[in-house]
Prior knowledge:
Elements: E1 11-14, E2 17-20, E3 23-24, H1 25-31, H2 34-43, H3 49-61, H4 70-80, H5 85-95, H6 103-115, H7 121-134, H8 151-162, H9 168-184, H10 192-202, H11 210-232
Helix pairs in contact: 2-3, 3-8, 3-11, 4-5, 4-11, 5-11, 6-10, 6-11, 7-9, 8-10, 9-10
The structure holds coenzyme A.
Amino acid sequence: MPEELWKTAITNVEPGKIRVRGYNITDIMEKLSYAETVYLILKGELPSKAEAELMNAILVSSIDHSATPPSVLGARTVISGGNSLNAAVAGGVLVIGDTHGGAIENSARIMQQWAKKDDDVNNIAEELVTWLKENKKRMPGFGHRLHKVDPRTAKLFEIAQRNGYKGKHIDLCKAIEKTLEQKLGKKLPINVDGAIAAVISDMGFDWRLGKAFFIISRVPGLVAHAYEEMTREKPMRKLGPLPFTYDGPPDREI
Ligand SMILES: CC(C)(COP(=O)(O)OP(=O)(O)OC[C@H]1O[C@@H](n2cnc3c(N)ncnc32)[C@H](O)[C@@H]1OP(=O)(O)O)[C@@H](O)C(=O)NCCC(=O)NCCS
């Protein structure tokens, strides 16, 4: 009996032939942008014009946010310890989590699950924010340490609107922002993670792919920081942490 083969639906490779999701790689190389190809490999189908523009904007939006994000500090610290570029980039990616870059995943999960509850996004937002408040939870994808209005959010939604790209999740996202302000008395702007979460949800991506959009976007930024650290800074330089004090046990004997 032949052993049963496991299956993959991503790329078919035979001698002299490479087909990604059924399309010839040489045609893809000539006819599709990188963003369109990322859409194809993740979704399995080609994007519409609006989806292609949005995908490109998503991948550009999170490419870098200067030297302070935890993933950049992670990548630079790995180089500083005398390691290679690949170790630094892997280290930076490992730092990405639910509160840094990874908010896309939870934001998309909540929006996708709650969007099914009612036809009216304002009713959903009302119920969701009440639930968040009662359970003392934060809405991922909203609020920012620095930006009062996240310019990347406005641009993503502008591109969607210009292309006539409408969807319930984008509408719900805007309704949540409005309701958070009404019910919590605080302006918590939709940050880039929240905007990406809404757009990918309208594109029909599973929320479990949420972190992928940030990782794919941020890796070139991490490479640039790791390379700059390698070529401009001396190894083991003082790279954080912020001033701190010791408050553990006093000196003692065994
Ligand atoms: C991004 C974030 C850490 C920035 O926080 P910050 O501006 O430093 O604000 P703080 O953490 O000090 O919170 C200030 C107040 O706003 C509230 N708040 C902040 N973000 C909130 C959110 N997303 N949902 C609900 N309440 C929120 C806090 O509960 C706090 O309330 P309190 O003063 O009554 O205790 C914060 O907004 C957050 O946790 N957002 C959700 C995670 C997220 O989207 N991360 C991706 C960032 S790009």
